[in-house]
Specification:
By secondary structure, this protein is an alpha/beta fold. It folds into 4 domains: 107 residues, 2-Layer Sandwich (Zincin-like), CATH 3.30.2010; 178 residues, no CATH class; 223 residues, Rossmann fold (3-Layer(aba) Sandwich), CATH 3.40.50; 43 residues, no CATH class. Helix content is 45%, strand content 13%. The protein contains 17 helices and 14 strands. Strands 10-9-8-12-13-14 form a 6-stranded mixed β-sheet, with helices on both faces. Strands 1-3-2 form a 3-stranded mixed β-sheet. β12, α16 and β13 form a beta-alpha-beta unit. α6 runs antiparallel to α7, α7 runs antiparallel to α10 and α15 runs parallel beside α16. The longest helix is centred in the middle third of the chain and has 28 residues.
Amino acid sequence: MTAHFAADPAATGAAVFPARPEWLTLSAAFADEVPVIADRDDLVVSVAPGAGGGAPACFYPHRALIEVDGDHLGVDLATVDPANLSDRARYAPAWGALTHECGHAKHTAWEPPDGAPPAVVAAAMLLEEPRMEAAHIRRRPDDRHWLRACVQGIVATDLHLYADPATAPKMTAADAARTAALLLGRADGGVLSHAEVYPVARAVEGVLGKEVLGKLLAVWRQALRTADDAGEQMLDLGRQWCEILGTDPDSTDSASPPASPGTSDPSDGAPGPGAPVNPSPLTDAIAAVLGSVAANVAGEKAPEDPAAVAAAAKECEDAAARKAARVALGVFSMGGAPDGDTLTAGTRPPTPEEHTAARVLARALDTAGTRERVAVRSTSQVPPGRLRMRGVRAAEAQHAAGAVVTAEPFTRTIRKPVPVPPLRVGIACDVSGSMGWARAHVASAAWILANAARHTRVPADTASVIFGHHVRPLTHPGKLLAEVTEFCSRDNYEDIPRALDALDGALGLSRPGAARLVVIVSDGEYRATPRRHGQKKLDRLRASGCAVLWLTTSHTDTPLAGATVHVLTDPTTAARAIGHAATTALRATARR
């Protein structure tokens, strides 16, 4: 029988009523969280120094009581706030012990019958440990972290690792088998990793031999697949365990073997708890594994409160939106920085071909935004509509009973128009020295898109910028330019993060509720800092649902990750590629 599961009906808790009021307060706070973890609302929790019956925690099923040893808390109890998931990491071993006992409360739904052979019961309860934890993390995967956090205390107690050097595991079949069930079984159950328990696996195999260990492994893996209430099956597995080890089923639990040469009693001046005297190789392996797991848990990120995570994400998103708005104000209202090499090169009248392309794109956007009417079925008490006899009978019954008639026997189907989703498109063109090929084509495409947006029934906003050392506007949101704005291409720096912020702040590209597209025309040859920050901006836009199109002319170029790359074999088709991407984005949103 494990030290932290008191199946005896006569067993009582060691500290049901803590003496100090602050422990009562903490016990109540722990108890408030238990119903969610254990899926039970009848459990009582007692947290106090010395509770747990010598283990970090203990579950008394006949009293629906969980005790947690307050000595394992490790922090000032006045600062403990278990309702805050982020606070639990400060006392992870104690919270893990509570979680372990909650797992027993939920999943150990069987009891050994009276008269069952003691060794069989002990083996079955030993197998129950990894079985229960595996069942618990299938139901609550995030609790794996807390179960790992308490492994050192729970397993060390079950194996009598530190309490008394005389009872520490020896190089015997019984101790090796017990160790295998508690540690290798947890690895197969998913709480620990096989790499973490490898030192114990090697030591156990050295004691038991490969054949015996293989037979035991088959038994505990069968236990992992056993249902919570399959007590007879667990006892049968316990019998198999005893047969494999040659244990007399009627013998008492051999969890605490007698002292053997090479150990000493703490009372004779030898080192006390935590320092076994002349430890066996098996003890060394167990201690190494438990220490390694504890170190790994300390470096892992604990589960976080979803509400806190959502609040932090919202604050981060709000901050990014505020920054984008400031950048957009500086670029579109003030024209960007007052000096620098990122320059426009005057304007020119649009060509007849550009006028035609704008009208064609406007019609394409209208077509893409057209949505079929949605059929809506409604009922009423009076015509028009199809008469349903079931509704008539219901109305007659209500009338005969003197009740208010609520039946609606007439049904009809009407088709309602669905609002067309708006469209937001931003264009950002790199104006470094290697992008000379894009100047005329992007200037033309920006004008065509802005002109098309002004002549379509689809609510549309567009804007375009150039980016080099600075970011400057080509077309403004909601404004129709009579002429095409041209620009230079001679910068040696690419401020793509600021360009994406400017378009986002001006058009709301990161806000849902519209078909959104950002087009980047660039070869992607950036310095490390703008590339890293630009990738973060692009990832944020994509996560919000904004489509990203990257136009380039060579397969050897290096776009940012996540963009849909389109290689222009003919740069004069840039406007056509942008228009096609805009209509595709609009159709995708319309289908939703």
